[in-house]
Amino acid sequence: MAKKKITFNDLARRTGFSKTTISRYFNNVDSLTVETQQIIKKAVEDLGYSENKLAKVLANGRTEIIGVVVPTLYMQYYADLLSKLLAAGESYGYKFIVFSSNEDREAEKRYLSELMAYKVEGLIMISHATPSQELAALKIPVITIEREDQFVNSVNTNNYQGGLSATRHLVEIGCEVLIHINGDLLTLSPAYGRIRGFREIAESSGLEKREYLQRLGIEYHDIREKMIPIFTDLENSFPRKKKGIFVSNDTSANVLLNLILQKYGKLPDDYKLIGFDDSPISWEAALPFSTIRQDTRAIAEDAMELLVRMMDGRKQRIPVISKALVHHVIDTELIVRETTVERK
C-alpha cells in the first residue's frame, strides 16, 4: 500500500498546536519558543513528515540556495576551494548553484542575472570580472574571495606574507637571480600582494631580479603558450646562474616545471622553483614542488560563517544589515619540497 502523505493537519493533531503554529515552525521558526520547536520537531520525526520545498519557497521566499561564481575550474586552487565551500555550506543546510565564468565579463553578467532569478539567498563571488560596486548593488549578502573587494565583505589570503616567504626562501637557499611570474594585476587585487612581497625582498637582497607580469590564461594550452617564451628568455638571459623562480599559482608553476623537465630530463641545479596555493598538483607533480600554502578549508569555512551570519540577519523580524564591511585575512605557510632543496 502507498504510504500516507503526512500533512500540517496531522502534525497539528499530534502536537495539539494550530496549523498556523506548525506553519511558523517551517517558515519562521525563530518566532516560536524553544520548547514548542522541540515538540514539533519530535512530531515531524515520529510521523516521517517530508517537507515540500517548493511550497516553502513560495510561502517565505527563502530558497536555501547560495550562488557561487568561479573564474575557472581548470586551476586546481579554484576546484579545491569550491569543494571546501560545498562541504562548509552543507553543514549549514544550504545548497549551491555554481557557474564558471572563464573570466568572461558578459557571461558573468548573465550568470549573476540567472542567480538573482533563482532568488539565491547569498552570493560567494570568486570570479574577477564584475566590480565589487556592482556586486554590492545586488541587494543580497555577498562575500568575495581573492578578488577586488572595496564595496563588499571578503575573505582573502595574506598574499603579501606569502610573497615575502616565497622570495625570502629563494634568497636563503643561495639563488643569484630572483624571478617572479604573475598576471598583470591591478593594485586593488588581493593577489597583487604577492608582487609586493616579491619586490620588497628582491630589492632588499640586492640581487638581480626580473618580473614577467602578463595574463597567462586559465587553461593548459594558453598557459603553456605564454610560458614557453618566458622559459626561453630565462635560458638565454641567465645561463649557469642559480635562478630562483616564484610563480603566482601552482598550475602555472607545474607547466613551467614540465617544460624544464622535458628539456633536461631532470630539474637542473641552477633552477629553484616555488609556486603558490599548495593545491593537489603541487604534491602530485612529476617532481613535487615547493609552494605557499593557502588554507582553503579555513577560507571556505570563514566565508560561509560570514555569509550565513549576514543571511540570518536579514531573516529577523527587524532585518539586521550591517553597513560596516568585514575583510578577513587568512595567513599562509611555506611548504618546502624537492624543487628548492639541494639534491645529491
Please describe the topology of this protein.
Blueprint: H1 8-15, H2 19-27, H3 34-47, H4 53-60, E1 65-70, H5 76-91, E2 95-100, H6 105-117, E3 122-125, H7 132-136, E4 142-145, E5 153-157, H8 159-172, E6 177-182, H9 192-205, E7 208-213, H10 220-237, E8 243-247, H11 250-264, E9 271-274, H12 280-284, E10 291-293, H13 296-314, E11 327-330, E12 333-335
Parallel strand pairs: 1-2, 1-3, 3-4, 4-5, 5-11, 6-7, 6-8, 8-9
Antiparallel strand pairs: 10-12
Helix pairs in contact: 1-2, 1-3, 5-13, 8-9, 10-11
Can you give a write-up of this model?
Helix 1 packs across helix 2, helix 5 crosses helix 13 (296-314) and helix 8 runs parallel beside helix 9. The chain contains 13 helices and 12 strands. Helix 5 links the parallel strand 1 (65-70) and strand 2 (95-100). The mean pLDDT is 89. The chain has helices spanning 8-15, 19-27, 34-47, 53-60, 76-91, 105-117, 132-136, 159-172, 192-205, 220-237, 250-264, 280-284, 296-314, and strands spanning 65-70, 95-100, 122-125, 142-145, 153-157, 177-182, 208-213, 243-247, 271-274, 291-293, 327-330, 333-335. The chain has 344 residues and is α/β, with parallel strands linked by helices.
